[in-house]
Write a structure and sequence with these properties.
This protein is mainly alpha-helical and about 475 residues long. The chain contains 16 helices and 6 strands.
């Protein structure tokens, strides 16, 4: 007989399993409702809408020409707002969507029409921008133009995301106009074509090739995204009465799809490797500059040739340092990479001489500062001595002048002499002025005269005390 407690435990476990299963089912239903794009898709209307936007003629052609001119002006003036406005009115997206759609539904006629119209649009765009940039006034290589000369792996991601968002938006019953406008801006099909026209007008084939490569990448991945969504939504395939023709067209469409997919993967991988190489090279250059203190004024990173060229001005990189840093390239994942450094030895010598002059100047300044300090010390000593001399002079009694005045004031004086007498009580030493006088024999009131003379001498010489001794 089973234990009731065991039965309760089993029931609880079953209940937990059921609740967890219901929870997972709920999440699954929520995600399906959240991410499922099949609901609300109008396949027939989407196909017709894309087909209607393929053809370029009359109004569409002029809109394309004017939008290219507006974009060219925006690139020439480096005005982002003007370039965005041109991208909003450009009809370039139509044939690209047509290529992706036609491959997805085996519509060979639509594919031909899309490719022809895409070629016409590209030709009109190049011709319009070529004419504009052929005017010498508008041939300055602005930053906006330079930014469209080299593709980046992020351009691929933008094209894929933009293409997916565009075809999903177009396939709704109610077309999301804001989404289409935003995608036209994000994917940026027109600026590369304008830059390619600039390259032709200025005979800069590097600009032309880089810009056309960027446009090709954007167009291919937008078409690829359209193809993927069309296949995932299971758009109705075009049926042909002739089974042989239907089979041949299906094979051709599949081959084109495989070629485009393979080429897209190849482009993405190549751009990914290029970006990785550029980032590693920049990191290597930064570390080299920090460690060596070299004055790197220009860098050139060539991924196809796997070369890093540096132009150094100022502190040069010695040959032994160059060998060491060349060996360090693999540590930055820069395998089979060549490091080339261009540096001016004469400039380096000149800088060495300048540094020598600077060093000599610093030493001279230090020597001058030392001499100035010595001179200041001597000046201080001289001032001290002068002060002492002044004090001594102040204490010095003008004996000749005083004796002459005393003779005038006291005609009875026969002789006067002066001396300073040092006296001490063994605790301190005093200097006492002593005057010795001798009167004529015929003088009367000698004591009175001596008192008057003593007072006069104290007043005349500004002395607190003095001794007056009669000889």
């Amino acid at each position: 007989m089973e234990n009731p407690q065991d039965e309760n435990l089993i029931q609880q476990k079953e209940g937990i399993k059921k609740d967890f299963s219901d929870f997972l089912q709920g999440i699954r239903k929520f995600l399906i409702q959240l991410l499922d794009i099949r609901e609300g898709t109008n396949k027939a209307e989407t196909i017709q809408q894309i087909k209607d936007g393929i053809t370029v003629k009359s109004h569409t052609a002029w809109i394309l020409i004017f939008s290219i001119l507006i974009a060219s002006i925006g690139l020439n003036t480096s005005s982002t707002a003007v370039v965005i406005g041109a991208m909003l009115i450009s009809p370039l997206m139509g044939p690209i969507l047509g290529v992706g759609l036609s491959i997805g539904i085996n519509d060979i006629d639509t594919l031909k029409r899309s490719l022809v119209n895409l070629g016409v649009m590209v030709g009109l765009s190049l011709l319009s921008s070529f004419i504009f940039f052929s005017i010498p006034l508008f041939q300055e290589a602005t930053p906006e133009l330079l930014a469209r000369t080299q593709p980046d792996v992020r351009d691929v991601l933008i094209a894929i995301a933009g293409g997916l968002a565009l075809i999903i938006s177009v396939s709704r019953h109610k077309v999301m106009t804001n989404t289409i406008a935003g995608i036209a801006i994000a994917t940026a099909l027109m600026p590369p074509l304008c830059t390619a026209g600039y390259g032709l007008a200025t005979w800069n084939l590097k600009f032309f090739g880089g810009a056309m490569f960027l446009f090709t990448i954007n167009a291919i991945f937008i078409a690829l995204a359209t193809f993927v969504v069309v296949k995932s939504l299971r758009f109705p395939m075009v049926r042909y009465i002739d089974s042989v023709k239907r089979k041949r067209i299906a094979q051709m469409a599949s081959l084109v799809a495989i070629v485009i997919l393979g080429f897209s993967i190849y482009l993405f991988y190549g751009l990914f490797q290029k970006n990785k190489f550029d980032q590693n090279a920049q990191e290597f250059i930064t570390v080299l500059k920090e460690k060596t203190g070299a004055g790197i004024i220009n860098t050139e990173i060539d991924y196809p040739k796997r070369t890093i060229k540096l132009v150094v001005l100022g502190k040069n990189i010695q040959q032994d340092e160059l060998a060491i840093w060349t060996e360090k390239l693999p540590t930055f994942d820069l395998f089979n990479t060549r490091l080339e450094i261009q540096q001016d030895n004469e400039t380096s010598k000149l800088l060495d001489e300048i540094n020598t002059i600077k060093s000599s100047y610093v030493k001279n300044q230090e020597l001058i500062a030392t001499k100035e300090e010595t001179i200041n010390e001597k000046d201080k000593t001289i001032r001290t001595l002068l002060n002492d001399l002044e004090r001594i002079q102040k204490k010095q009694i003008p004996f000749i002048q005083v004796s002459q005045e005393a003779k005038i004031n006291y005609e009875e004086l026969k002789n006067i002499s002066f001396s300073n007498v040092l006296s001490t009580d063994f605790t301190r030493i005093d200097t006492i002025p002593v005057f010795q006088i001798q009167w004529k024999d015929s003088i009367d009131n000698t004591d009175l005269k001596e008192q008057q003379l003593k007072r006069w001498l104290q007043t005349r010489l500004q002395l607190d005390s003095l001794q007056l001794i009669r000889k």
